[in-house]
Write a structure and sequence with these properties.
The complex is a heterodimer of chains A (792) and B (165). In chain A, the strands form eight sheets. Chain A has a seven-stranded mixed beta sheet, with helices on both faces. The N and C termini of chain A lie far apart (68 Å). The longest helix of chain A has 28 residues. Chain A has 792 residues and is α+β, with helices and mostly antiparallel strands. In chain A, helix 10 runs parallel beside helix 19, helix 15 runs parallel beside helix 16 and helix 16 crosses helix 17. Chain A folds into three domains: 211 residues, Aldehyde oxidase/xanthine dehydrogenase, a/b hammerhead (Aldehyde Oxidoreductase, domain 3, Alpha-Beta Complex); 253 residues, Aldehyde Oxidoreductase, domain 4, CATH 3.30.365.10; 147 residues, Aldehyde oxidase/xanthine dehydrogenase, molybdopterin binding domain (Aldehyde Oxidoreductase, domain 4, 2-Layer Sandwich). In chain B, helix 2 runs antiparallel to helix 5. A five-stranded mixed beta sheet of chain B has the order 2-1-5-3-4, sandwiched between helices. Chain B starts with a strand and ends in a 10-residue tail after the last helix. In chain B, 32% of the residues lie in helices and 16% in strands. By secondary structure, chain B is an alpha+beta fold. The chains are: A alpha+beta (792), B alpha+beta (165). At the A-B interface, helix 1 and helix 18 of A face helix 2, helix 3, helix 4 and helix 5 of B.
Chain lengths: 792, 165
């Protein structure tokens, strides 16, 4: 029975359920010291002298380093991985990003010094004795304020705080379409700033082996090879052959653990200096001010429609917050992961988007689950709903009228992407049926009789996943390839190790990838070991983000298995004294077509490693194949989400009555794991819509949401049961037909919830609500629109 | 100030020399090597460090190590019976109630505490009880199903359909 398509229970669960996972902070190296990082309490200040004398003689302190020490050692800055060019062709402003601040601090939490001591408490105590002469200057944290004349300037080399002023699309065609439009709908909206908040705080251990000259970094990373490349080549100048990066069990990432962070470089650099391993683990409040944040867009959008309510053109202008420094992938998020998605699921023939990326005195902003695609989906689906409302059309009907038809694929959008497959009508229909969409008005009236405001909201989405064709992204400014590698190593007795460049930090690759190999090589899952997260074991890898693991990493495994089977056929042909062309491979056996003569994979493997009777003229011994897979296109998961909410007008309290998601992820390997991915994405999307918002004090630049007391994480009580279904259209350009599922929930849910909230309040004249739609915000909206009710 | 603390952990005597400020979770993780109990925050919000002290669920970051003197502590490492998972652990596995696994030990310890006091909790009661445990991966959907299924199994009731079916 094939394993693909079945809900195989996860192989990784036993160790996690029994407390035997190995997360970075669970690792302790012999003789290790502890690092505490002293961070700036100010959002913008000149750094005067740093006096470490008293701290250096505090109990247990081994060393204290500052930015000056690193600069004296020739240590480079943290690099940005994607060059964006402005409209005028000029390159983005790319200011330096020192590992430890020099001359100036630019956000609260900017690392200033590291104290290394025998114990963490001694390091922390000593850090209090460091005296720093800060000369505090005005700061700007708000993206709209940062572009106003007279705003504090984060970087002198970026006038007006502009990093780049980018655009995409045919502006003239859009203007022409707007000129002849029967209807134009306009909206200003904010995509709220979020913090990923993986439950495991970041951690890093640096170690140096003086005997071998090898540096080792244990780190909480989604992509250890990328960290090795960036840190080795650009920051510490360590040859990759002497730098091992291990990302063991990682407790969630959601994008925030893609990037190369200062602390990784600090512990790796410091370990040989102090001649002992150095360990750093973030406290949660430190995570809040040092992990890259997400989203933070301010956008104006206009949609032009003809007299039949067909979309003619979309015009979008966005300010995107970069924070104080450019994080690893920051620059591509509000451009090529955002502007290219603005066609959504629709046939809009003309689209023009301009994005100004803006420096502010905040933590760097980078990819967070969905990365650009939730922002695109939110504005498209909000403006579509607003258009439906202004035209008096059912929002589902307006969407259907403008969907790319199921028979129109491959479909070229006006914003660069070519969608290979999809069926938006069907997923919407499935969601409508599951949500009881047709019967909603009765439920609204029933709720109204109870004094409650009930609303229903639809969002359809498209996402570009399986990131990404290297040549394409290279032409768009990426400074890396985005392929994936896999090695399928068949051992002499037929068990198999798969070394994958993908990284699992909750996604269950050890199970899903084993299912792939089980079907591909016809051996039981128990015979297969999936190895990931260690540059000393895995040939190479680009890691896990952008829902790429199954589409790119899985395809690399398939390619490597194909090579194993091809070589196995040659060996089998020799053993069976048959022509290679007559050898078939099925269910783990190589057989001569039309006969009962066959050799098992195990027999062929043994022959490969004990090659006494072996075609030496033709083949090398061994059965161990490596493949690199570079995708031909992005994959395009899509779907429809429907939220139904009920609001108590007296308190603003909102209840999600029902949440339905119908998604198309292409072929599904493990439906249980896919459902789990959707659940988690929906929770984060709902969190964005209703609860979560990162807030800085505008006057001082202090982070106001710096702990779980202040930043509202979704809790079990905040969320409903989810009703899920899937519809399959296969990806046409990868061997498995898979599209990826990790980000969908976070992409569709915010707009579905926001549309439901506005639907609930539209009777009061509300046309938009900003996220997070907290009870306070809803109560104020309701009472602003009901002045008499509020006065009662 | 250093003090030696003696206590029982997972049925075995344990002792360690701690500072006055050492937390129970540090004693468990750093001195006794029981790294299954996790630290996910510094404000006692996340619940990744939930253990049982004398049979009650406690966030191990809210108790000083010296307060554990003479107490009986159960951590996630002591829940399974040898290699056989506890029915609640089995229910988590069967319902895909964990992804990255970081919140999982605290979730399981909290679930056991809930079921001890309420052997047949409703979905609403489970969601309310979990207000002290954060999970960022699962959206709680499958955790709720798992705790229900685990409670059923512990009562000897017929298992409910799991998430995957």
């Amino acid at each position: 029975m094939p394993s693909i398509g079945t809900p195989v229970r996860r192989r990784e669960d036993y160790r996690f359920l029994t407390g035997q996972g190995t997360y970075t902070d669970d690792i302790n190296r012999p003789g290790q010291l502890h690092a505490y990082i002293l961070r700036s309490p100010h959002a913008n200040a000149r750094l005067g002298g740093i006096d470490t004398k008293e701290a250096a003689s505090a109990p247990g302190v081994v060393a204290i380093f500052t930015g000056a020490d690193m600069a004296a050692d020739g240590i480079g800055g943290l690099p940005c991985g994607w060059l964006i060019n402005s409209k005028d062709g000029s390159a983005m402003k790319e200011p330096p990003h020192p590992v430890l601040a020099v001359e100036r601090v630019r956000h609260v939490g900017d690392p200033v010094a590291v104290v290394i001591a025998e114990s963490l408490s001694e390091a922390r105590d000593a850090a209090e004795k460091i005296n720093i002469a800060y000369s505090v200057e005005p700061a700007v944290v708000d993206v709209a304020a940062a572009v106003r004349p007279g705003a504090p300037q984060v970087w002198t080399e970026a006038p007006g705080n502009i990093c780049y002023d980018w655009h995409l699309g045919d502006g003239a065609a859009v203007d022409a379409a707007f000129a002849k439009a029967a209807k134009i709908v306009k909206l200003d909206l904010v995509n709220n700033r979020l913090i990923a908040n993986a439950m495991e705080p970041r951690a890093a251990i640096g170690e140096f082996n003086r005997a071998t000259g090898e540096h080792t970094l244990y780190t909480t990373s989604q992509n250890p090879h990328v960290i090795r490349l960036l840190m080795g080549a650009f920051v510490l100048h360590i040859p990759e052959a002497r730098l091992r990066v291990v990302a063991p069990d990682v407790g969630g990432g959601f994008g925030s653990k893609i990037f190369h962070y200062a602390e990784e470089a600090i512990v790796t650099w410091a370990a040989p200096k102090v001649r002992r391993p150095v360990k750093w683990t973030a406290e949660r409040s430190e995570s809040f001010m040092s992990d890259a944040h997400g989203r933070d867009h301010v956008t104006h959008v206009e949609l032009a429609l003809d007299a039949n309510a067909k979309f003619l053109a979309l015009k979008v202008s966005t300010l995107a917050n970069m924070g104080a420094y450019l994080s690893t992938f920051a620059t591509c998020v509000p451009t090529y992961l955002y502007g290219t998605l603005l066609a959504g699921t629709y046939t809009t023939p003309a689209i023009y988007v301009e994005t100004k990326a803006v420096f502010t005195n905040t933590v760097p902003v980078d990819a967070y689950r969905g990365a650009g695609r939730p922002e695109a989906t939110f504005l498209v689906e909000r403006i579509v709903d607003l258009a439906a409302d202004e035209l008096g059309l059912d929002p589902a009907e307006l969407r259907r009228r403008n969907f790319i038809p199921a028979n129109a694929f491959p479909y070229q959008t006006p914003v660069a992407l070519q969608y290979d497959s999809g069926d938006y009508q069907t997923t919407l229909q499935m969601a409508e049926e599951a949500a009881g969409y047709a019967g909603f008005e009765a439920r609204r009236q029933e709720a109204a009789r109870r004094g409650k405001l009930r609303g229903i909201g639809i969002a359809t989405y498209i996402e570009a996943c399986g990131i990404a064709p290297s040549a394409v992204v290279g032409s768009l400014g990426a400074r890396a390839g985005l392929f994936e590698s896999a090695e399928v190593r068949v051992h002499p007795t037929g068990s198999v190790s798969v070394l994958t460049g993908s990284h699992s930090h909750g996604q269950g690759h050890e199970t899903t990838f084993a299912q792939l190999v089980s079907d591909g090589l016809g051996i039981p899952v128990e015979q297969i070991e999936i190895v990931h997260g260690d540059t000393a074991k895995i040939p190479y890898g680009m890691g896990t983000y952008g829902s790429r693991s199954i589409a790119v990493g899985g395809s690399a495994i398939v390619k490597a298995m194909d090579k194993v089977v091809a070589k196995g056929k040659k060996i089998a042909a020799h053993l069976l004294e048959a022509s290679e062309a007559d050898i078939e491979f099925k269910d783990g056996n190589f057989s001569v077509a039309g006969t009962d003569r066959s050799k098992s994979l195990g027999e062929v493997a043994l022959t490969a490693y004990v090659p006494h009777n072996f075609p030496h003229d033709e083949l090398e011994p061994g059965l161990d194949e490596t493949a690199f897979y570079d995708p031909k296109n992005f994959t395009f998961p899509s779907g429809a989400h429907i939220a139904e909410v009920e609001i108590d007008p007296d308190t603003g309290h909102l209840t999600i009555v029902n949440f339905t998601a119908s998604d198309d992820f292409g072929r599904i390997i493990n439906p249980m794991i896919v459902a789990g991915q959707v659940h988690g994405g929906l929770a984060q999307g709902i969190g964005q819509a209703l609860l979560e918002g990162c807030v800085y004090d505008k006057a001082t630049g202090q982070l106001l949401t710096g702990s779980y007391n202040d930043y509202a994480m979704p809790r079990a009580e905040d969320l409903p049961d989810f009703a899920l279904s899937t519809h399959v259209t296969l990806c046409t350009h990868n061997p498995l037909g898979v599209k990826g599922c990790g980000e969908a929930g976070a992409i569709g849910a915010p707009a579905a919830i926001a549309n439901a909230v506005v639907d609930a309040l539209k009777g009061l004249g509300v046309r938009h609500v900003e996220m997070p739609a907290t009870p306070e915000k809803l109560w104020r909206l309701i009472h602003q629109h009901q002045p008499r009710a509020a006065a009662e | 100030m250093q003090k030696t603390v003696s206590l029982t952990v997972n049925g075995k005597p344990a002792s360690a020399t701690v500072e006055g400020r050492t937390l129970l979770v540090q004693l468990l993780r750093e001195m006794l090597g029981l790294t299954g109990t996790h630290v996910g925050c510094d404000t006692s919000q996340c619940g990744a460090c939930v253990v049982h002290v004398d049979g009650e669920a406690v966030k191990a970051c809210t108790l000083l190590a010296v307060q554990a003197e003479g107490r009986n502590v159960l951590t996630i490492e002591g829940v399974a019976d040898g290699d056989t998972l506890h029915p609640m652990q089995e229910a988590f596995r069967d319902n895909h109630a964990l992804q990255c696994g970081f919140c999982t030990p605290g979730m399981v310890m909290s679930a056991l505490d809930l079921v001890k006091n309420n052997p047949d909790p409703s979905e609403r009661e489970i969601r309310e009880y979990l207000e002290g445990n954060l999970c960022r991966c699962t959206g709680y959907h499958n955790i709720v199903l798992a705790i229900k299924a685990g409670a059923d199994a512990m009562r000897g009731a017929a298992p409910a359909a799991s998430a995957a079916e």
